[in-house]
Amino acid sequence: MAEEASISAVEMVLVVVIFAVCLAPAAVTALKGHIALFVVGFFFGPVWLIAAFRLAKPNSAWARRYYSEEKLEKSRARYPKIDPTDRDRSKLALAIGFGLLGAAFVAGVVAGATGS
User: How many structural domains is the chain composed of?
Assistant: First the structure.
């Protein structure tokens, strides 16, 4: 008779916390407008940790919400070719990236539940 694997509440909380700690830098990276680094981070996670501490692009959601005028000037100096009035695509990248990650997670849970 095969034993049925069960996940305790503590294990489930631990999994959720680990996902949150690992994926928070990913969200920050995308919101700062570093879309290429966001995509690379799916293959090599430490990229997200590095990119999360970099200066945001001047047209990013992060810069518009959290940066003072002084820090925004630094961002404009670092990224002179980016027009601050252009809308960035970080929210679209977040939706696609985390949507794919969520789909992979659900597929893994379903496959594990069916024993495939």
Answer: 1
Contacts of 63 (CB under 8 A, 6+ apart): 32, 33, 56, 57, 71, 72, 75, 84
Residue 33 lies in a domain: yes
3-state secondary structure of 68: coil
Total-model pTM: 0.70
pLDDT digits (tens, 9 = 90+) for 54-108: 999 998 889 989 999 999 999 999 998 887 777 767 677 778 877 877 777 777 7
Q: What is the DSSP letter of 88?
A: P
Cα dihedral value 103, 93, 70, 79, nearest 10: 140
